[in-house]
Amino acid sequence: MPKLTIERLDLAGKRVFLRADLNAPLSAGQVADDARLRAVVPTIQYTLKAGAAVVLASHLGRPKGHVAPEYSLRPVAERLEALLGERVELAPDCVGPETRARVGTLKPGEILLLENLRFHSGEEANDEGFARELAALADCYVDDAFAAAHRAHASIAAITRYLQPAAAGLLMQQELSALGRILQSPERPLVAILGGAKVSDKLALVEHLLGRVDALLVGGGMAFTFLLALGHAIGRSLVEPDRVETARAALEAARRRGVRLVLPLDTVVAERPDSAAGRAVGIREIPDAEMGLDIGPRTAESFAGVTRMAKTVVWNGPMGVFERPAFAAGTLAIARAVAEAPGFTIVGGGDTIAALATAGVTERIGYVSTAGGAFLEFLEGRRLPGVEALTEAPA
Question: Which of 198, 298, 308, 324 is catalytic?
């Protein structure tokens, strides 16, 4: 069912509990990458302009239910102030009498950022009591944290049982709309590109996509399990022996459904991932003592040839050990190929987004998702607790 959106709420004079994903990397006490902060700025600005006070909430890192100063949201508050040009106060906690008192003095147009939700074990436990305490801080709920929507946590799921209405923020709407274009009525041909280390991480996604896409391009470490299933010698390349039969079944399913499942033609090999350089060899020529660490130039061109014919392209996962310059060329080539694709393109996952930035093509992608795990689970066809918990839109 379509979900209630923030535009349908009367926010004037209200306190809005805005769940965002401000889980940004920190370095030397400052936000190192503010992409997730910038993504939620439009929703904050919309809420303030509508005459509401914002009770902003997020997690940061994995403090495991205990107060850990290194995971304080103070650097996030400081960076948000710079982005918004508005004062962002940081509460001493996300619950408790002092926080309730601070919330009680909030006026329309003001923002209070609650301290890290995960300083309390009740957050990840989806605890009802903790959720009630959070709900008591506001008059309505807005979720703009699609990147955390696959988590059944108190500030995402249980809170909506005590705080209604529960609406989608502007970023949540964008994410659902972009991903919906892939799952519901994509323009065809629809091409998916998957990379990353392990096929087991994306097995459910492979199986789900085979029923939806016209072509599936597989690179990264996960490709070697498929290549082994086809009988290729893969040297010391990463492989999951217990997934070989599953990969073989996926190859057969693709053949049966008429889906092109495209695997690497060549790979860049070296003795170790930290080697200073590698060389491209054909898939049938991988030396026993070496491992494939990137797709080779023939594979990059093969993949690009498929994307040039696509009307919709979705990409998740690097094509090799992208963080090493010697093995980054394949991933960067795919980033450029996706950017040049004539159809609608959507990219998700931290390493994949980093590749877009390195290649200088981020602005040429149709939609860049803020999510990693939620992105994959949505594409797998799974129900996300953070989406399910939102109020259904009135007819």
Answer: 198
Sorted by where each begins, the domain ranges of the chain are 6-171, 178-379
Torsion angles phi and psi, residue 341, rounded to 5 = -60, 140
Name the catalytic one among 36, 102, 118, 202: 36
CB 296 within 8 A of CB 270: no
Nearest of 56, 101, 50, 109 to residue 79 by alpha carbon: 56
Confirm if 139 and 165 have CB atoms less than 8 A apart: no
Give the active site residue among 38, 373, 381, 382: 373
Calpha distance 321→293 (Å, rounded): 6
198 is catalytic: yes
Asked about 373 being catalytic, the answer comes back as: yes
Tell me which architecture the domain covering 178-379 has in CATH. Answer: 3-Layer(aba) Sandwich (3.40)
| Strand residues in the chain grouped as ranges (E) | 15-19, 26-27, 30-31, 53-57, 88-90, 111-113, 140-143, 166-168, 190-194, 215-218, 260-262, 266-270, 279-282, 291-295, 312-316, 344-347, 367-368
Determine the straight-line distance between the first and last CA of the chain, rounded to whole angstroms: 10
Superfamily of domain 6-171: Phosphoglycerate kinase, N-terminal domain (3.40.50.1260)
Two domains, one topology: 6-171 and 178-379 = yes
Residue in 96, 109, 350, 366 annotated catalytic: 350
pLDDT in tens, the chain (395 residues): 689 999 999 999 999 999 999 999 999 999 998 989 999 999 999 999 999 999 999 999 999 999 999 999 999 999 999 999 999 999 999 999 999 999 999 999 999 999 999 999 999 999 999 999 999 999 999 999 999 999 999 999 999 999 999 999 999 999 999 888 888 888 999 999 999 988 887 888 898 899 999 999 999 999 999 999 999 999 999 999 999 999 999 999 999 999 999 999 999 999 999 999 999 999 999 999 999 999 999 999 999 999 999 999 999 999 999 999 999 999 999 999 999 999 999 999 888 999 999 999 999 999 999 888 888 888 888 899 999 999 999 87
Q: What is the pTM of this model?
A: 0.89
- Is residue 280 a contact partner of residue 333, using CB atoms and an 8 Å limit? no
* Pick from 161, 185, 181: nearest CA to 173: 181
